[in-house]
């Protein structure tokens, strides 16, 4: 393994062995047993297996937490489905449809647990958002001169969020297993194990069939020309087409510096409203170019956008479906002045709609994940071009769904604001992306 840290190499070796052991357990999980004690023993072995994973993970992450937000030991497909360094807790509830003989009382308690886990997930996401927004509050000079204590604070924050996510995962499994009989517990653990094993097999198969490693290099070279430029800041405020013929070619360095150049103008005061209008127009064009280029490049290699090598590990840690999370933008509104009561009311309405749109994207991602576990191993081994195309097309669709929510968010907010307020919002968002990148490079 090249260009990896000692921690990445160590954990890669551990993880490969851990998954092999999980696949070995899976053969026992799908069998029928005549004694309840056999099911109890299997549950005990699987829970110990999971505990060992988190024990090893937490020890390794304490030395290099960023490695767990862009894990090299996972395939691009597995990385595409990550939520805060692991599987999303609410996905597990989708596996319960395969369980038999759930009583009415169990169903009621499971629904209650599901609500609690969703609240726990949102708590983790809010903490991640809080850390992101705090980045934008630091001045550039603070980042350039940051010392060991500053770096340690950022890494400690990421480690804390990672552990929060892991704790929700553990709570989910423990909560469900506590509500089930030994046989039902084995059925649930079998469904979850099948999901992870099948997803990994699919990921490896896709890498073989589509030569993702080779193609990723091409996509990175092409997209870095535009990706570094817009820093996921981009938003096309009209419909975005896959046609990138209208792009004005620029050198990577020019594109890299362009957002910071705009930022210098965004933080100035102007005497004429037309100056603010012109700035908004320039930024929206800048955003449109980003998405136009992104969609064209992703059509060639969509997996590259779920683990983008053109971003720093810190930037990757804060990704949501290949970009910035739409609801984060509402956190920047605290910096805006003179918002009327009517504007605040409409913004709150938009915020609710955007949250619903985010959840729709997340449900579609969950649906695709669960469908992976439903395929038999023989289907994966023998999958052809049509199967590969279907998986990649599904990821591309989810990516575009996420991008469209980003588009709706910025367009919706800018439509509610004056030109001056729009510039203030765009300045806050640009500062966030510029500062996050500077921090990422400093780390």
Automatic annotation (TrEMBL):
Residues 8-209, 241-443 form the DOG1 domain. One of its GO terms (molecular function) is sequence-specific DNA binding. One of its GO terms (biological process) is DNA-templated transcription. PANTHER family: DOG1 DOMAIN-CONTAINING PROTEIN (PTHR46354), PROTEIN DOG1-LIKE 4 (PTHR46354:SF2). This is DOG1 domain-containing protein. It comes from Artemisia annua. InterPro entries: Seed_Dev/Stress_Resp_Reg (IPR051886), TGA_domain (IPR025422).
């Amino acid at each position: 393994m090249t260009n990896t840290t000692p921690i990445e190499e160590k954990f890669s070796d551990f993880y490969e062995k851990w998954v092999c052991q999980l696949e070995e357990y899976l053969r026992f999980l799908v069998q029928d047993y005549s004694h309840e004690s056999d099911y109890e023993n299997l549950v005990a072995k699987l829970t110990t297996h999971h505990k060992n994973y988190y024990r090893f993970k937490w020890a390794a992450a304490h030395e290099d937490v960023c490695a767990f937000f862009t894990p090299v030991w996972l395939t691009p497909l597995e990385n595409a489905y990550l939520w805060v360094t692991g599987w999303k807790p609410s996905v597990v509830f989708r596996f319960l449809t395969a369980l038999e003989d759930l009583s009415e009382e169990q169903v009621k308690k499971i629904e209650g647990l599901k609500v609690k886990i969703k609240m726990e997930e949102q708590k983790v996401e809010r903490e991640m958002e809080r850390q992101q927004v705090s980045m934008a509050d630091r001045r550039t000079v603070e980042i350039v001169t940051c010392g060991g204590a500053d770096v340690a604070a950022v890494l400690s924050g990421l480690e804390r969020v990672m552990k929060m996510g892991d704790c929700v995962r553990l709570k989910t499994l423990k909560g469900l297993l506590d509500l089930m009989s030994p046989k039902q517990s084995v059925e649930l653990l079998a469904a979850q194990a099948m999901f992870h094993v099948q997803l990994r097999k699919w990921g490896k198969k896709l890498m073989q069939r589509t030569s993702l490693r080779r193609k990723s290099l091409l996509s990175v070279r092409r997209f870095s020309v535009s990706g570094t430029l817009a820093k996921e800041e981009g938003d096309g405020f009209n419909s975005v087409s896959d046609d990138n013929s209208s792009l004005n070619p620029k050198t990577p360095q020019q594109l890299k510096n362009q957002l910071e150049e705009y930022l210098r103008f965004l933080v100035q005061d102007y005497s004429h409203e037309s100056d603010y209008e012109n700035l908004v127009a320039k930024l929206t064009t800048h955003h449109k170019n980003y998405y136009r280029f992104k969609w064209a490049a992703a059509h060639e290699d969509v997996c590259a956008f779920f683990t983008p090598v053109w971003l720093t590990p810190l930037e990757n840690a804060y990704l949501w479906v290949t970009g910035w999370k739409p609801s984060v933008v509402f956190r920047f509104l605290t910096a805006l002045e003179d918002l009327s009561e009517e504007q605040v009311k409409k913004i709150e309405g938009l915020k609710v709609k955007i949250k619903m749109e985010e959840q729709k994207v997340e449900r579609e991602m969950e649906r695709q994940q669960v469908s992976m576990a439903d395929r038999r191993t023989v289907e994966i081994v023998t999958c052809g071009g049509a199967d590969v195309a279907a998986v990649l097309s599904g990821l591309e669709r989810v990516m575009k769904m996420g991008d469209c929510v980003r588009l709706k968010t910025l367009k919706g907010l800018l439509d509610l604001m004056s030109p001056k307020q729009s510039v203030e919002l765009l300045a806050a968002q640009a500062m966030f992306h510029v500062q996050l990148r500077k921090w990422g490079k400093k780390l």
